[in-house]
């Protein structure tokens, strides 16, 4: 069996795609014929999904560009690459904190206006540089909102740079909590970050709760002269309020990864063109991670690192496996078992996991007769609450 993969957008790491191996063809068919997409920030809201599409791999962390519930309701599993670009974002954020503290943007602009001989420039520098006296980050308090893959790395490294660190994350994963130094003070209220921090960096996903969260109401609570960094998502910051609080001097510097014309000529704002995850290493990691997830999903039905379905791992030992995506309503598993028994097939193993409105079942069957199995698949497909059924033949 050959699977068709389509890359969407031109930013997909070619080396990472090699992880797919021989059973996969890349970019050989049109989008509507592909079984899986690999994408980065392409916006899929309102996209007209084809029935062929089984999976999407988001070669990155944030997946707000993909309507994951809509995908789930059509039986499309969406994978991301948790942590694949976290080090890249961490390095950029640490650099931006120092860059802002040393006033390098206005200093560089001023210097590039000093013309003449090197000696004349030296003289101008001697006099002019006092306008760019900066401050050090050591000894200051860094507030981190979101202690996930990125936030937890920044927390530990900022401690090494001599900062005090305060973190807020009501949903922190157990693994991250173990990784974070005990010297990071975890707080229960976001307002404690606003009140304590000299630097605030945002590392949460874009959700209904975080959209527009950084507005006048919260800027008011921050310390005078706070430095704010947003390398998470643009929509979390209310631009007019931010510009107002920059103007007032309450926010002394804002670094962001998301462009806006209103930012470009402001000396207290530094904007990068969504470069947080754009390193060779991160692009490779993320593409490999989603290629591996999609590859095992298409070949075995196992789900690893999906954002709209639960994790389901079970070695495939029987000659055939049926995978079922269904609505998470009562009696679906009972009706699956009944149909199998009516076809006189023996179940070797069954695993069913639900998450929210949808569930996923792996059904390993002690049966070699492909015709009989196809009949069973047709029975499942006719069930009202079943969304997608696949018959997978064990390789080798
Ligand atoms: N600028 C860029 O190129 C990149 C931006 N990102 C953005 O950064 C975000 C975070 O990335 P990762 O750390 O890799 O994700 P992650 O999923 O590992 O961590 C996110 C953390 O935010 C926490 N969280 C969720 N809602 C929260 C809330 N309301 N308040 C406080 N904490 C909350 C979660 O519990 C989790 O620990 C992504 O969702 C994405 O939007 C990620 C990678 C690259
Ligand atoms: O793919 C990219 O460059 C965007 C990275 C990003 O924003 C993410 O991983 O959430």
TrEMBL record:
Catalytic activity as recorded in UniProt: (2R)-3-phosphoglycerate + NAD(+) = 3-phosphooxypyruvate + NADH + H(+); (R)-2-hydroxyglutarate + NAD(+) = 2-oxoglutarate + NADH + H(+)
GO molecular function annotations of the record: NAD binding; phosphoglycerate dehydrogenase activity
Top-rank lineage group of the source organism: Bacteria
UniProt pathway: Amino-acid biosynthesis; L-serine biosynthesis; L-serine from 3-phospho-D-glycerate: step 1/3
Enzyme class: oxidoreductase
Record PROSITE patterns: ACT, D_2_HYDROXYACID_DH_1
Sorted UniProt keywords: NAD, Oxidoreductase
Pfam families: 2-Hacid_dh, 2-Hacid_dh_C, ACT_4
EC number: 1.1.1.399, 1.1.1.95
Gene3D superfamilies: 3.30.70.260, NAD(P)-binding Rossmann-like Domain
Chain ranges of the ACT domain: 321-394
Keyword flag Metal-binding: no
Family in the record: Belongs to the D-isomer specific 2-hydroxyacid dehydrogenase family.
Protein's job: Catalyzes the reversible oxidation of 3-phospho-D-glycerate to 3-phosphonooxypyruvate, the first step of the phosphorylated L-serine biosynthesis pathway. Also catalyzes the reversible oxidation of 2-hydroxyglutarate to 2-oxoglutarate.
UniProt name for this protein: D-3-phosphoglycerate dehydrogenase
């Amino acid at each position: 069996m050959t699977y068709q993969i389509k890359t969407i957008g031109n930013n997909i790491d070619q080396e990472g795609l090699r992880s797919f191996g021989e059973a996969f063809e890349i970019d050989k068919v049109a989008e509507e014929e592909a079984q899986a997409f690999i994408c980065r920030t392409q916006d899929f809201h309102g996209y007209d999904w084809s029935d062929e599409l089984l999976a999407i791999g988001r070669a990155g962390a944030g997946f707000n560009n993909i309507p994951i519930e809509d995908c789930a309701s059509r039986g499309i599993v969406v994978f991301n690459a948790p942590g694949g670009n976290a080090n890249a974002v961490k390095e950029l954020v640490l650099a931006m904190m120092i860059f802002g503290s040393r006033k390098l943007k206005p200093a560089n602009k001023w210097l590039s206006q000093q013309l003449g001989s090197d000696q004349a420039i030296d003289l101008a520098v001697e006099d002019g540089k006092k306008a760019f006296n900066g401050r050090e980050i050591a000894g200051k308090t860094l507030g981190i909102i979101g202690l996930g893959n990125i936030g937890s790395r920044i927390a530990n490294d900022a401690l090494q740079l001599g900062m005090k660190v305060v973190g807020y994350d009501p949903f922190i994963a157990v693994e991250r909590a173990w990784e974070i130094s005990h010297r990071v003070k975890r707080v229960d209220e976001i307002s404690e970050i606003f009140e304590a921090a000299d630097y605030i960096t945002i590392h949460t996903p874009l959700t209904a709760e975080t959209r527009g969260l950084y507005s006048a109401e919260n800027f008011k609570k921050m310390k005078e002269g706070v430095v704010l960094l947003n390398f998470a998502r643009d929509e979390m910051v209310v631009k007019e309020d931010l510009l107002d609080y920059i103007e007032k001097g309450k926010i002394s510097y804002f670094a962001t990864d998301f462009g806006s014309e209103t930012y470009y000529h402001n000396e207290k704002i530094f904007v990068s063109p969504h470069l947080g995850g754009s390193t060779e290493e991160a692009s490779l990691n993320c593409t490999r991670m989603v290629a591996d997830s999609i590859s095992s999903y298409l070949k075995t039905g196992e789900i690893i690192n999906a954002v709209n379905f639960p994790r389901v791992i079970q070695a495939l030992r029987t000659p055939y496996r049926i995978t079922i995506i269904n609505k998470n309503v009562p009696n679906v598993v009972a009706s699956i078992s009944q149909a199998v028994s009516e076809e006189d097939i023996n179940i070797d193993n069954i695993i069913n996991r639900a998450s929210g409105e949808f569930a996923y079942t792996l059904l390993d069957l002690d049966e070699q007769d492909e015709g009989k199995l196809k009949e069973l698949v047709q029975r499942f497909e006719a069930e009202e609450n079943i969304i997608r059924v696949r018959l997978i033949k064990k390789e080798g």
